[in-house]
Amino acid sequence: MSSGNRSEAVDVQKSYEVRTYGCQMNVHDSERLSGLLEDAGYVRAPEGSDGDADVVVFNTCAVRENADNKLYGNLGRLAPMKTRRPGMQIAVGGCLAQKDRDTIVARAPWVDVVFGTHNIGKLPVLLERARVQEEAQVEIAESLEAFPSTLPTRRESAYAAWVSISVGCNNTCTFCIVPALRGKEKDRRTGDILAEIEALVAEGVSEITLLGQNVNAYGSDIGDREAFSKLLRACGTIDGLERVRFTSPHPRDFTDDVIAAMAETPNVMPQLHMPMQSGSDRVLKAMRRSYRQERFLGIIEKVRTAMPDAALSTDIIVGFPGETEEDFEQTMHAVREARFANAFTFQYSKRPGTPAADMEDQIPKEVVQERYMRLSALQEAISWEENKKQVGRTLDVMVAEGEGRKDGATHRLSGRAPDNRLVHFTKPDQDVRPGDVVTVEVTYAAPHHLLAEGAPLGVRRTRSGDAWEKRTAAAPEPAGVMLGIPGVGVPAPLPEAAVPGCGLG
Where's the TRAM domain (predicted)? Predict the structure, then answer.
């Protein structure tokens, strides 16, 4: 990294820790925050430091009603540590910082820096200013100062990477506060996107995920409705780029040219995560979702016609204000028709500052819970049935890092199939690294993973595996950024902080 931007005040290497909550955008922003801090001379805190770092950064989410309680609880636990260590600094950024601004310092006066979603690049400067002036620095930009991808980055994976193509959102969904905090959609230049992807591939990355709050609306800035499909096709021309994914698209902007580009571009994976939110036309209207059930299921049918082996997933909110039993049954019907490989289902939670929070007919919690359990049981059964169709198939699995929690005990490895299904497989005789590709035959299916119990049919060592090996050998494995959601290519259930409407369409 360049030393030209290093803060002169960092005479000795100070440690940092980043705690991330929320959507994929926050995860990507945290990679930037880590890169900025390391460019300023900080080093990542050892694993298990749990607040013992010299700088602790909270990258927050604001889409849950209790998001602020979670933040202040965590800040409260750090207050005694800071009292014992006067040089310690605490910074709060992300959506909650953008929303609450001065409230954070008022409620937690031991916080040193508050910064917003539009000026994450200022973090090192604000930390230094707070140290010199010995007072909290609150700086919230009202519009984007620099596209995040122009900032230094400390990426969490040697073989897979997020690539942001836009920030902000032009939609007005009544349950979502993100547009107010992230601003209107701003698209990045196609040439800059492709240049970043090519640079990542040159470093050994073989899988990229195009990222945007409403990723397939890309091009609205320049009035080109086919810009996203053109970008997908352009990704297909990059030598060494094996897998392309994107998240999350909006059904309103999901056009036939995008489906064609997915089907006709070999390295665009047969996988689609598209939030439905509800199957009820009446509820969708109340949500200000500009499509109806027929339109959504029509897109699903077209995708399956073009890519019969595609795995589809979605987000669904249960118990939106005014949702009747008939509305809920329409959601159940849509789920039966769509046959998602998996669905992230959420019980509606008030988001302060959103129109839905003030709507009448808020659904009693016990009713929401009962509907949630019925929907979860239905989707669990469908997921299992869809996974059973994979038994006997031969799949190329990209070996992943940290996805198989029981791999050590079972002598297996884990990775992702092209359609992003999680596959646990028998460990080959030869050495295999994350990023390498192993060919296996599926022998068993569970609702949330596949199992390949026989000996692998083949192993392909890759440039990504080489990159992982080089990165691992260069330094001891550091503590990971404490992410609020899983990493790249991981469709496991999101935690409470990550909900639809925050980078999820």
Answer: 388-456
Domain of 82: which CATH number? 3.40.50.2300
Number of domains in the chain: 4
Predicted TM-score (pTM) of the model is 0.82
61 is in an annotated binding site: yes
- Domain span at residue 349 reads 301-388
User: What are the beta bridge partners of residue 398?
Assistant: 416, 437
- If asked whether residues 372 and 336 sit together in one domain, one would say yes
Per-residue pLDDT of the chain (505 residues; tens, 9 = 90+): 333 444 444 456 899 999 988 777 778 788 888 888 988 899 988 876 776 899 999 998 876 666 777 888 889 999 999 998 889 999 999 888 888 888 899 999 999 999 988 888 889 999 999 999 999 999 988 777 666 666 677 787 899 998 999 988 889 999 988 777 777 888 999 999 999 999 999 999 999 999 988 999 999 877 888 999 999 999 999 999 999 999 989 999 999 999 999 999 999 999 999 999 999 999 999 999 999 999 999 999 999 999 999 999 999 999 999 999 999 999 999 999 999 999 999 999 888 788 999 999 999 999 999 999 999 999 999 999 999 999 999 999 999 988 888 888 888 999 999 999 999 999 999 999 999 999 999 999 999 999 999 999 999 999 999 999 998 887 544 433 333 333 334 333 333 333 444 434 5
**CB of 290 closer than 8 Å to CB of 399:** no
User: Domain ends where: 355, 388, 421?
Assistant: 388
Locate all alpha helices (DSSP H) within 426-498, ordered by sequence.
Answer: 463-474
Same domain, yes or no, for 92 and 111?
A: yes
Q: Is 235 annotated as a binding residue?
A: no
CB within 8 A of 86, min separation 6: which ones? none
Cα–Cα distance list, 58 to 22, 200, 290, 486 (Å): 11, 27, 34, 17
Phi and psi at 208, nearest 5°, equal: -125, 150
In this structure, are 374 and 401 located in the same domain? no
Task: Count CB neighbours of 262 within 10 A.
Answer: 22
Q: How many CB atoms lie within 10 A of CB 142?
A: 10
Burial track 145-172 (b if 16+ CB lie within 10 A, e otherwise): eebbbebbbbbbbbbbbbbbbbbbbebe
* Within a domain: 287: no
Q: What is the CATH number of the domain that holds 414?
A: 2.40.50.140
502 is in an annotated binding site: no
Q: Is 173 annotated as contributing to ligand binding?
A: yes
Q: Does 129 fall in a domain? A: yes
* H helix or E strand, kind and range, residue 36: helix 24-39
CA-to-CA distance for 274 and 295, rounded, in angstroms? 13
Please check whether residues 203 and 115 belong to one and the same domain.
no
Here the CATH number for the domain that contains residue 166 is: 3.30.750.210
Residue 286 lies in a domain: no
Domain boundary residue, one of 356, 388, 420: 388
* DSSP sequence for 121-144: GGHHHHHHHHHHHTS-EEE--SS-
